[in-house]
Amino acid sequence: LERDLLSQVAAASDEAALETVRVAALGKKGSVSDLLKTLGAMTPDERKVRGPQINGLRDRVQGALAGRREALAEAALEARLAAERVDVTLPLREAPDTRGRIHPISQVMEEITAIFADMGFSVAEGPDIETDELNFTALNFPPGHPAREMHDTFFLAPDAQGKRKVLRTHTSPVQIRTMRAKAPPIRVIIPGRTYRHDSDQTHTPMFHQCEGLVIDKAANIANLKWVLEEFARAFFEVEAVKMRFRPSFFPFTEPSAEVDIQCSRKGGEIRFGEGTDWLEVLGCGMVHPNVLRNCGLDPDEVQGFAFGVGLDRIAMLKYGMPDLRPFFEADVRWLDHYGFRP
Ligand code: PHE
In what residue span(s) does the Aminoacyl-transfer RNA synthetases class-II family profile domain sit (predicted)? Predict the structure, then answer.
């Protein structure tokens, strides 16, 4: 029996076969268990002889089973290792490009900052939540002035004094902050987020502007035109660009103008520095004497000019993006599509 059992164990080729052998030998009705049961009916003398024999048989079968089980497990592991071995000689699979992309607004802000830095402008900033005083009154929008209505303002809940702060509707309040904080000469640009209650293909409730402000003894309209032309040339990367100054109105500048730049449009493609079409790109003007006075400056001593560019708008124009809404949808495929650098 022993030889038979041990050869069965050795022949078991997997865990299941081995289990069958174990049950046939050591299970409740197994051959070895049957032998063990016979011990009970033996005389003490018989048992003395047969007991160690049968128990020894059981131990050896158990030992053989355990040994075989271990061998099978080891073989299974070897087989798995062999099957899952990495073939380091295989050519590389193309790695997915998981790097982020710079956002067009950040890109345009960087470009503008660099262009104006070359012309001696530094950068100033102010808060998104602004007082009514700085967003409007100090900029020569008297209370109740109709120009306030044109700004589609988001108001915050009034404070204990009944004063309502606003989400700034333009970057111009930082003009006031700058003039109140430092003496002329002033040459700053002011990039930042701005807010108006407006939403369609080319307007989002939060958008971006970049303000420019120059104050000194003799800053004049010719200087303003030169600065804007330099900017447009550098930004749109053209040799020369024609600009058109259309009379306009802003409470904080006088005279005021809206500026168009020359372009051509062929089949939806816009090119700058050529053609006979015009695209509006910014607002500007000479700083209003009232604004200077509101900042403690004497209009007989200093003067200056200001301009305000919609960053989202010029990003759309420069990079040929027809819709503003994806700017704020965080879809990386859209950034990839327009090829922004990582
Ligand atoms: N603040 C104006 C706007 O948002 C733009 C502007 C800035 C105009 C500076 C003139 C001078 O429409």
Answer: 106-342
